[in-house]
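Usage

Read records sequentially. Each one opens with the input sequence:
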Amino acid sequence: MHVHLDLIGGLSGDMFISAMLDCFPEAEPQLATVMVDAGFAELVRLESLPADDGTLTGTRFRVHADHDAEGHHHRHYSEIRRILEDSRLQADVRKAALDMFEIIAVAEAAIHGKEVDAVAFHEVGAWDSIADIVCAAYLIASCGVTSWSVSKLPIGRGRVKTAHGILPVPAPATSLILQGFETIDDGIEGERITPTGAAILKFLAPDQRMPSGLTLGRTGTGFGTRQFPGLSNVVRALVLEGGHQPQWDTDQVTQLSFEIDDQTPEAISVAVDDIRNRDGVMDVIVMPYTGKKGRQGNSIRVLVRPDVRDEVLAACFQETATLGIRCELVTRAVLRRQPVVLDHDGRRFRIKVAARPGGKTAKVEMDDLQTVKMADRDEIRRVLESRALDEVNDQTE
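and closes with the structure output:
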């Protein structure tokens, strides 16, 4: 099952939950149990009501915090993490909630120059916001959705009042979390995507194109609390089913491309090694070419995680002689892989087993095979790869 999120008004935690409940109303009764498992049952009250703005109808979900129990509206990330780790939430729900809080904490730490555990959440630290993330985590983990996509994100305009003061829209932490997503400016003032909404999107890692060949099923409309002139403040969840289900996963990476024809091979080798060893760099490829006037040069392609694009861009400019770099966000298809470690003649070998459309294949890490005499490598490779395939197949039977 695939869900496409159409961010008409924007996205917040309660809007995401509203749209999902409008699609999957059978999940609503379970949210009260989720609050009990999280230890929040005495601290919050959940409310899900029909909504109608005169143009669209749908669902509006809200969490009401018990102000007597609220105490303070800011909590350190380490405290929230402890609360969730000590809860009785299902493992997949707990992990999703922890991952989303970590996404926000890492962004806040980068913005304010703090260690992650020292980050104090303000608006996100209130019980209602914590409950929003936990409810979202439950719906993500339990509704049977296997893939996600999202429309272009409305960027918003103006300023927003926060515990840190008046901040530009989108807020700095939100901007950092949403690096790599396509945006639109529809000219409407106000905050369109909250930090919680941004963390949900980052966690889902959605494709930014709706897949083709699927059948549209349920549609859910989730309302936010703000009102925009001439625009319904809603997010739509479109459920798509059927069609060909690929046997691989998709994600997005940033591709940096540039050419160099005025740097020595030695200097390029040093630069490429430095770039390849940086955090978030997945691969660096160097290809020779012949340019204008018969000049010999090298075309360099760097694949990086979208969130570290700017840091790697700076490294490419610092380490090479290039004067311009092309940046492109691309969708990548990735085969599902399973690592296997086997012992053979007192040595440990790492093998990657990949699930291909035509069947599983295995490949021994060459770094490990280098410890074997060349005359024996082919035979040991065949033995290890056969054993790895047998082991993985036994686990799935």
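Summary fields computed downstream for this record:
- Confidence is low (pLDDT under 50) at residues 68-72.
- The chain has three domains: 2-245, 249-333, 337-396.
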